[in-house]
Amino acid sequence: MRNVSNPFGNLQYDLPASIVVFLVALPLCLGIALASGAPILAGIIAGIIGGIVIGSLSGSNLSVSGPAAGLISIVIAAIHDLGSYQAFLLAVMFGGILQFFLGVFRAGTIGAFFPSSVIRGMLAAIGLILILKQIPHALGYDKDYEGDETFIQQDGQNTFSEIINAASKVTPGAIIISLTAIIILILWDKPAIKKNKVLKFIPGPLIAVIVGIVLNTLFNQFSDGLALAQEHLVSLQSVRNFSEFVGLFTLPDFSQVSNPLIYKVAVTLALVASLESLLSIEAADKLDQFKRSTPLNRELRSQGIGNTISGLLGGLPITAVIVRSSANINAGARTKLSTIVHGTLLLSTVILIPTVLNMIPLSALAAILLMTGYKLTSPSIYRDFFRKGWDQFLPFIITVLAILFTDLLVGIAVGMVVGLFFVVRSNIRGSHHHENGVDGNGNGRFSIFKKIKSAITIMKQGEKYLIKLNKDVSFLNRSVLRQTFERIPEGSTLVIDSEHAEYIDNDIRNTIDDFIQDAPSRNIAVTMKKEHGQLVKEHQTH
């Protein structure tokens, strides 16, 4: 497990993945900046800082940070209210400082209170949105900006009406390029390619983009009717060297330091960006094949430092983002090196080869995002959650629908309400085992919060630890359980006793399973027993 997290021991996985993330991040950085009413370069700066600075400081192995579509409405309103982009940058700086102190005071713990059914629903919803939003771009209809995740668009159209409009105004050359790219990406997932000694190290998305550039070059030479206009290509401001690039930075307006509105915007940015980052981190950890957990308070501190620097250099506010993180994971990344290299690629290519970047067809990039979306929302995911029962499926599917028809934060809030409903229901059912609502200690009617607090008992004797799961154990107890597991020293013996637990949430089971999987690397002997009187799992690792 520990060797897996070594950045220099997984180059064969991380370097190809970094190219894929770069290709996904480039149009999103540009599109989000354009939609926010900020300088185009602001999105690139945020992407570079998110990759290099936050990627280096973060404890996450797989998440990728950059400008977030979820903050666009806040950015637009803030620039308008503050009167200038320079004043807004000051708010971004102060928001980053506040975010850092949120991490210092351990506010990141809130990230452990999102049920996995809601997090998985968020991932599936993002995948569905990616597919629906990229269909117009794949057809050559590029009216909406890249990276839009909202149902109602800025131009008054919605996700579905945009597809209808695109179907009536297709660009043949774009369709040829996107279909070719999709075929390449499908072929690159086949075992024959993955086992090839040479081809397995070349990312499929890179081949898809190169073929897209070649096809459009041929169209320009031999078929004007198929050639793509500049509006269907990446559009990036050209710079000739690093000094010219730095000269384009926009600095904060420090004369606005006494404006109280600056601090209102800073607080809003800090809270919303922190919440989006924690959600994305939880989602990335769910997708990690090695089941590693990210230290959430360290993540907030890293995000805070990144946002402070981004505001100082003219960049947009940054969060950990799901689309880039999932693309990173699907591309086979194993450590944070892929994130750092993707930021380095953004910096170097913008300075060295902007002309080449401006030749990339948006339809080729749309194909990459379409395939990323499919992997996040494949039919098997819905089938698996349906089989888990209504207490898992309903929060999952309601989160998917709520995000699809509103936006990320509203959808998560709706999913959380549904998840909490099932926690309350399980507690009410558990209370019926005591007459007149009196608990086993005679303490009067049951309290959900008291049960949450007393759901886990930890005991220690020398090198031996005992964790007892009492009564009902829900996802609300996951944070305490995680912290407990992290504090158990190497070489210990642990018994997890669930004899008295009448209800164990799926999130708790997953947390226990993940710990048991990781226990051998820490030389911890784990025995789990007594779920309804039976020995459930014994995992001796000594």
Automatic annotation (TrEMBL):
A Pfam cross-reference name: Sulfate_transp
Segments traversing the membrane: 20-49, 61-79, 85-105, 117-135, 170-189, 201-219, 305-325, 345-372, 393-424
Top-level taxon in the UniProt lineage: Bacteria
Upper taxonomic lineage: Bacteria, Pseudomonadati, Bacteroidota, Cytophagia, Cytophagales
Record key words, sorted: Membrane, Transmembrane, Transmembrane helix
Name of this protein: SulP family inorganic anion transporter
Membrane topology (UniProt): Multi-pass membrane protein
Keyword Membrane annotated: yes
Signal peptide: none
Subcellular location: Membrane
